[in-house]
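Continuing the batch. This is chain 6 of the set; chains 1 through 5 are on the previous pages. Same settings as before, nothing changed between runs. Recording input and output for traceability.
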Amino acid sequence: MSELGPFAFEHAVEVRFSDIDVGGHAHHSKALLYFEEARAAYWARVTGREGLEGIDYVVAEVAVRFHERVLWPQTLRVGVRVSKLGKRHFEMEYEVRDVDRLLLLSGTTIQVMYDFHEEGVKPIPPEVRSAISEVDGPFGPGGRRVVATS
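Output for chain 6:
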């Protein structure tokens, strides 16, 4: 478990000066960039698939919640995990915190495995499913992540 709590994986993201809008905080579109950087790092580390050729999914849905302002300069800590593992898709959850662990952003994305050569949806490969399960599992009925209770 990381310092972010129930997230086994986290990734540091720098807030860039160019992220800041006229309100003095990061533009709302930048949340997706922070999620994307963490998702790419998670995918490379957990599945071992790197670079563009290693990305064999498309993002189908995104939800973002803004809790506090994201300011410059800051180093954000993005916790990311798979919360649902389906046959052809997976859902990821994100929490973005500052160095004091204040929750700034949270959200989810749904990715669908995609064969770019065949131009169609494909099943999650067994080795990817296994690697994700090792880090974020177990996954129970309906593919939902099983949360241990004490």
